[in-house]
Amino acid sequence: MHEVHRVLKVHEVIRVHEVRRVLGVLVLVLTCVTPALAAQGRRLPPAGSPGADAGVSPAEIQRMLDGYMLIQAQDVLQLTDEQFPRFLSRVRTWQETRRRTQGERQRMLQELRRMTSGRGDVVDENAVKDRLKALDDLETRASGEIQQHRGAIDQVLNPTQQARFRIFEETMEQRKIELLMRARQGRGRQNQPQAAEEPKN
Predict the structure, then answer these.
(1) Quick check: 101 and 145 in contact, CB under 8 A?
(2) What is the structure's pLDDT at 193?
């Protein structure tokens, strides 16, 4: 049994290092961590470093923040070595479920937008009604699944750690909004036409 636990722990450490290697390239996330985390001694790259204003999709930002949460969780929540592997496994399942259902919801909303955006065209009300029903069903199912996975995470944590996890999650949501705004601004600057250079005499 001890050997099994040792192998599982090694496996989780390898997965963490894989995430760490990917995030090392994505300095966008590391430039936007909270001052509270920075005050705990984590060194941050300077503002304006390469990639800080890169345009990325919302899905990419969510994956980066999910990876960052996995890396920082042990310190932020003060997890024990015994808790950490179980926490990682359950949080990863929770994150994957959330990303999957968010993607499905966005696809349904885009479909509804296409179905209702025509000006002067006759809208198929029955088709729209069916898609709305499907969207409602998805949101109900997704809420139940996410809540179930969150409950599984709480089973690993004590009450203090559960509170820290809620705060950490809210911090990541705030950072996601900030990153999305910066990404849009970055794309806006890239799409602006550059002024022609004056000929040199």
Answers:
(1) yes
(2) 57
Do 69 and 168 meet the contact criterion of CB atoms below 8 Å apart? Answer: yes
Kindly provide the residue ranges of all beta strands, DSSP E only, lying in 50-92, ordered along the sequence: none
Contact 97/58 with Cβ under 8 angstroms? no
Q: How confident is the model at residue 191 (pLDDT cuts 50, 70, 90)?
A: low
Count of alpha carbons within 13 Å of 41, Cβ hemisphere only? 2
pLDDT > 80? residue 50: no
Residue ranges per domain, the chain?
2-34+50-117+126-186
Q: Which residue bears the tokens 């509804």?
A: 112
In angstroms, the Cα distances linking 142 to 121, 137, 154, 182 are: 33, 8, 18, 29
Separation between Cα atoms, residue 4 and residue 176, nearest integer Å: 37
State the DSSP H helix or E strand holding residue 98, giving kind and residue range, or none if neither: helix 83-116
Kind and range of the H or E element at 26? none
